[in-house]
Amino acid sequence: MAPATQPTSDISLGHGTHHHRFYRRANIFVVGVLILLTLIYFVWQVQSSSRTFQEQVNHQSSLLAEMLLLNTRASLMTEEVLTDSAELFLSNMAEFIVYLDAVEPFSAAELTAFSQEAGLAGIRIEHGEAVVEGPPGWWPEQHRMQHSYFDYDPAAELFLLVRGNGRDEARVAVGFAADYMKILEEQSGLNAMLKALRSLPTIRDVQIHGDADLSSLMDDSQIRVDFVAATQEVHSTISLGDGSLEIQQEATHYFAHIQQLWREFFIFSLAIATIGALFTWMLNRLHQRHVATIRAAERTLAKQHEDATIGRAAATISHEIKNPLNAISMGLQRLQIESPQLPKDQADLISSMLKAVERTNGIISELKQYAHLPVPNKRPVNVEDIISDLLTLYRRTLEEQSIQCHFNCTNIFTVDADPDMLSQALENLLKNAIEAQPGSGFIDIQLSQQHHFATVVVENGGLETDPQQIHTLLDPYVTSKATGTGLGLPIVRRIVEAHKGTLSLTSPNPNTLRVTMNLPLNDHT
């Protein structure tokens, strides 16, 4: 026995499945690579944004520290200039007072008037044990006039200058109000500068910790940057000697940018995943179509093979059997004619044999017709007329078998069909309905329009086939009748398909068969 070969359709189906798996895996791989590249790009964007923002924070922190340093230096220089000016002014005033006192000693009232005129806080002159001052009580008691000196008393807010030794010359002490020093410190001091920095839009707070030495600020000073997501702030700390300068800046835009990057990442990843799923779905659809095409081709090949086999069998049967059957039929007919005096049992036997020969001839004719269905010679045909003619032809049979037949037509329908083939298909349906109900029953025929099709529905009782297997009645040689060939409905199906129509079987009720035939309407209907 020759080894069995795998069908071409099975091989193609296997190749198609293999290619489908390959493309599906390739699609998943490409989607995964795209998502990975998106993740890498997102991480790079986040790191780049963090690095750029940190550089800006470092630069801004350095600028703020330099501003504090310059402000402190300017404040110190201003204070130094003011102090030197006050010392020079008081020194000149002291020399002038010594000169005037040498000419004529001052009284307390005169010192008070002179102080007011010169803008001094007060004047005090000591001649040994004698002391004159004006206005009275202006001199801070915690200060002594034992030697010459210049000093600033922050508690009294006074510049104090003492001149003279008190022995051979008078010792003079003069004071000058230093209110402007307090104002200067309030407006240009370190605390004022820190307060001004805190009022900037992006600065949350500026603090100095420990004994910070602003003069130790260098271009390469170490700056530590900490991101605080809870408050959306960035804290930069600059080491300054034994202390540090901490600057708390608003980082809302930075965190908003990071969140925007996250959103873009998820949206883009979702888009890639959606596209990947769409491509996977399309591949599955293409694969299903490919499989359906292959299976349809397989069914077509199987049907062609079956038709070819049936055709060869029909030709063989027609050639090898029909001729002997014709001879037998002619011989039996001759016996009937030439032997009229045969006994009844022998005459009945001859009659039964003739009927059997006729049935056999009918089976062979149906087989040839199924195997060699002619090409339809289409022309406009009125379906209602064909059905009406068939009902007229089978009226007596219907009455003899007590079958109630109802025909309903909603309109006049014309189809492009071969009238003989269409008449044969409808007659087969009517005969099947009659043969399925030998005692009594019903036949309902409905002719209507469904979209661009003329629909013929034939419904009858007597169905003995399982409704789940009812579709097998359209296959050749499948029948529920004892004497049926199983070719009636298959011939109807082939005729309908030759006219580009459809034929379907259903069972709306128990023991009820419904045959639905759809034929394309004529363009002028």
UniProtKB/TrEMBL annotation:
Tagged with keyword Cell inner membrane: no
Statement: the UniProt record of this protein carries the keyword Membrane: yes
UniProt xrefs under PANTHER family: PEROXIDE STRESS-ACTIVATED HISTIDINE KINASE MAK3 (PTHR43065:SF10), SENSOR HISTIDINE KINASE (PTHR43065)
Protein's UniProt name: histidine kinase
Keywords, in A-Z order: ATP-binding, Kinase, Membrane, Nucleotide-binding, Phosphoprotein, Transferase, Transmembrane, Transmembrane helix, Two-component regulatory system
Organism: Desulfurispira natronophila
InterPro entries: HATPase_C_sf, HATPase_dom, His_kinase_dom, HisK_dim/P_dom, HisK_dim/P_sf
TM segment ranges: 26-44, 265-283
Domain Histidine kinase span(s) in chain numbering: 316-523
Entry's EC annotation: 2.7.13.3
CDD domains referenced in this protein's UniProt entry, alphabetically: HisKA
Listed GO MF terms: ATP binding; phosphorelay sensor kinase activity
Catalytic activity: ATP + protein L-histidine = ADP + protein N-phospho-L-histidine
